[in-house]
Amino acid sequence: MRIAIAGAGAVGTSVLELAEEYGHTVVGIADSSSAATGDEQVDVESVLQRKEETGAVGTQPAGELFKTEYDVLVEATPTTLGDAQPAFSHCQRALEEDRHVVLANKGPVAERYTDLRKIETQSNGSIRFEATVGGAIPAIRTIEDYGPEKVLAARGVLNGTANFVLTRMAAEGLSYEKVLSEAQELGVAETDPSFDVEGTDAALKCVIMANVLTGGDPEFTLSDATVEGITDIPGSALDLAAQDNKTIRLIGEATRDHVKVGPRLVPENGPLSVTGTRNIVQIDTEHAGRLNLSGRGAGGPETATAVLADVGRLG
Amino acid sequence: MRIAIAGAGAVGTSVLELAEEYGHTVVGIADSSSAATGDEQVDVESVLQRKEETGAVGTQPAGELFKTEYDVLVEATPTTLGDAQPAFSHCQRALEEDRHVVLANKGPVAERYTDLRKIETQSNGSIRFEATVGGAIPAIRTIEDYGPEKVLAARGVLNGTANFVLTRMAAEGLSYEKVLSEAQELGVAETDPSFDVEGTDAALKCVIMANVLTGGDPEFTLSDATVEGITDIPGSALDLAAQDNKTIRLIGEATRDHVKVGPRLVPENGPLSVTGTRNIVQIDTEHAGRLNLSGRGAGGPETATAVLADVGRLG
User: Fold this and answer.
1) Per residue in B122-179, pLDDT tens?
2) What is the DSSP string of B215-230?
3) Taking CA atoms, what residue in A is nearest to B306?
4) Domains, chain A, ranges and CATH?
5) What pTM did the predictor assign?
6) Which of A297, A268, A269 is closest to B291 using CA atoms?
7) Whose CB has fewer CB within 10 Å in chain A, the N or C terminal residue?
8) Are A302 and A136 in contact (CB under 8 A)?
9) Which of B21, B288, B305 sits opposite A295 (nearest CB)?
10) Could you give phi then psi for residue A299, rounded to 5 degrees?
11) Which residues of A are catalytic?
């Protein structure tokens, strides 16, 4: 397939780098200010070099991306909430031109799921969005293959930053502020970590899974989620939990009825107490009990493999 | 899709019972001595009742199954080794008539993988075999979606009987013979448990995964596997392991170079020490690190969900 990539951050550039290995070509990549395009394939090395040296991927206007002969648009621009723009317009344009869309951007599928699906039904193109939930973990595909109506709930540890902080607090007996600071130094937490530690990121992922479970009817958006983060957990809470062979994890849960994210006591050695930045998606099914799927929930290459698995399913 | 089911054991009858819920019809089901067929759909209740009361699913000769207007054959007859007959012939006939085949039977894909794939390339039908490895766990689909050539290894706990026995030995300090006897009473172990406790079942599953990793070149069969079971593990070995916070599990591993099954020391609280009859498939990937997929590895309904997920991917 010929891929056009909107977004040149960690995920976009990883898709650029790995696409050929997966048998695809990248005919264009754009960031907010520019685009690089190629008739058959962009020059990966010079794109990466230009991005590193100048901050821009290309020398053409960004909009040129949509004029390439692409089969599938990869939407990997930064997640935005509410109207999910400009990502939503990118998806809309591609679908209206009968192209496929693979999202790594959570915005359109978390905040405007039914709008997006409506455009999809009128298009010869399809949307896929494995990369929006759990990175390399095959969460959406497994729910889809199992049959969403036969999945009772999907829950898990869906944010690596928050999980890293809780793991370190428990392991070292350090305060939240200390561990967060350490996480920022390691690049595991952002300078403004609120999206992760307040539970918003995990909530968006659960909203997406809830929409898959319901098929968008009813439709969930972030405002439907009950969300509590990890910013108020004292070290003493973790000590107390440990005395009972438990620990605390930021758990998100999606059912057809609700989306909830919050800190929960979990057995210290159970499947939900993944450590560090690892994620887990736990799927409760009607006929096959519980599936536990854990792995790397974030990262450029990791998320790119989810994007490319989706591209493979379209071909 | 219209399904014809060869085999009326736990898996075949579960597929019969669940197919409608997944949007499919069963136009025929056969056991070794008979077949029941229907123009649109067999009568599920009377088939199940007849099977229970008489031991036979139908009143027609078994071969009538292949004369129905089926889209996909589900091969769920008992696994046989070597020439994998009669399952191989069932698959061959379906493919030669341009129908799809979904296998729950390990024989053809473990013992005659390239033979089967060759017939598939000459057919308009496709083969799928998720149900042959790990029951409800999406092992084959995940390797397939990720890209088999980018999977470095697949390993795990793949036999519920052996795992139940080891779990109970460690938990209760009982001997192998005592726990095996208990497992047989519970129906977790067969009267002749050798297929499970000697590691053959786990080895077949690893052989199948190895064939997926190599694409059948080189081809693996059971005879290529190095196999050791659990029949010689004394309780003292588990006690010793526990002192080191470890336990023993029957671990199977498949790479492009080898298939090995044998008892291994594993961390007591690590992902590979699933308990009871649960299974885990651990996939090491090139770009996304390690995925751990655990769940119910056996059972009629559980395996049927894997069969029906495969049917869904064909439609």
Assistant:
1) 999 999 999 999 999 999 999 999 999 999 999 999 999 999 999 999 999 999 999 9
2) TTSS---GGGSEE--S
3) A146
4) 2-135+301-314 (3.40.50.720), 139-297 (3.30.360.10)
5) 0.95
6) A297
7) C
8) yes
9) B288
10) 120, 150
11) 205
